[in-house]
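Discussion board: Methods & Data

I've been asked by a reviewer to show the raw model output for two of the constructs in my manuscript, not just the figures. I'm not sure how much to include, so I'm pasting the format here to get opinions. Each protein appears as its amino acid sequence followed by a line of discrete structure tokens. Is this the kind of thing reviewers expect to see in a supplement, or should I convert it first? Here is construct A:
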Amino acid sequence: MRARAPGRVNLIGEHTDYNDGFVLPAAIDRFTTVDVRPRTDRIVEVDAADLDERDAFTLDAIDRTGSWRDYVRGVVDLLALEHGADLLIESDVPRGAGLSSSAALEVAVGRALSDLPGDRLALLAQRAENEFVGVQCGIMDQFTAALARAGHALLLDCRDLSYRHIPIPDGVAIVVCDSHVERRLASSGYNDRRAACEEAARLLGVTALRDATLEQVAALPEELRKRARHVVTENARTLAAARALGAGDLESVGELMLESHVSMRDDYEIVPDELDELAARVRAVDGCYGSRLTGGGFGGCTVALVAVAAVDDARAAAERAGATAYVCRASDGATRAEP
């Protein structure tokens, strides 16, 4: 049996997921593939071919390793398998670029070893990352890897997990540009931003910043006001972008992407100068509808929506800024089939 799950890029809706807000990601046509062969004993052997590394453990004692192995082990642990398996893993999802290679791995392993519905698979994979790996990620990455649809973005309500597939117009490419700027402050910066949002919600007396208004936010102390203002306005932008994208209004989507980028830079303060310059260079290309930082910030990638005819120019602009450009199409979520 062979299963695969895609990486993902977020078109808009940044740092809204842990505030019970809205996100608009798309799966990309870069995949983690898992070939599985059942065993009769309780041993799991893992061959990560692209890493040239291996792992082996028993279902009776699944310990943490502090390495990539924990993403596999955590999923296997939660699946509570009766028998072991041999897993061969290959991936072309770029690592360390904010394209959710970890979620692709978790969901691909879960799909290879189970028939869980997509939403339950996503929740199990998130739980594995939260509880076994120890990373307090939101649900967006795993949900996209499990339930995305080719040719569409996915508008997800992170509070109740309701979602809609939003068509991406023909003739548009998703260009992801890896800046190669190391995300040195990503972990501490993420934790600081999340704590600020929780404190802002507490002071405002709301369950999450999803429920706050700009009028309420204006009364907060300066730093909390800036963080909360980003979240409130980003939620509104995400919903507006989904409407515009579904209507084929790419100019409006591009304007909203720029507003998102500026808000992340000035209010959330997660955009390094190199990423600001990279987004601007690609945005200046004739045929680029919008370009913005994507992901947690402090480094990583930008994402752009670009007319297919302008893809080479966008790639060249990114490369002049020292980035690597990946030209992507929106893909399906996790699938399983006979090899």
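Construct B, same format:
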Amino acid sequence: MVIDDEPQIRKLLEIALESHDYKVITAEDGKKGKQLAASFFPDLILLDLNLPDTYGLDLLEELTEWYNGPVIILSVIDQESEVVRALDSGATDYLTKPFRTAELMARIRLALKRSESKENITVLQFGDLELDLVARIVKKNGEILKLTATEYSLLVLFAKNEGRVLTHQYILKNFKGVGFQTETQYLRVFVGTLRKKIEDNPNKPIHILTENGVGYRFQ
């Protein structure tokens, strides 16, 4: 689903998506976007920020109260504060206009892949790392790692959001609870100890990557 007030952008996205065998519905404002999202419950939403009847992030916060599919922001706004706010509000990804169609398609494929059958997955595999969510066991190269409860919870949060940039506030809220969003110094400590256990070289991590000024991305 595309929610964008520019007819040429809607048409461009519709053509590009249909050429990759996606079915597309479009809306030119927030009101119609909410109505169509509730009616069709799309697999993924592409959302512009500058809508004629509402600001995109306000609409995003309304949508995420009941919609749990991926939402990718497409906007001319490239301010770091707005990117962070979007990710904090539940956006899966953020792409600045003008964008490359091939990159957008790659991000859509990744977002859809992550959202498929999330609830049914019991074992997650990432290269040399394996997470058994039922047994609560983490292995590296086949050997069981000894993680604290905090380290394990943090790793599971990262793993379930593979490829997605998670802000400091989002991470702290989701694995420590409301009220801990400003305790970023503790988060750095937790990430540091976790990297020592899962990375071959904690100083050059390949799994938990730092997104400067924003948060972390797990891959």
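Answer (T.O., handling editor elsewhere):
This is acceptable in a supplement if you add a one-line summary per construct. For B, something like: The first helix runs from residue 7 to 19.
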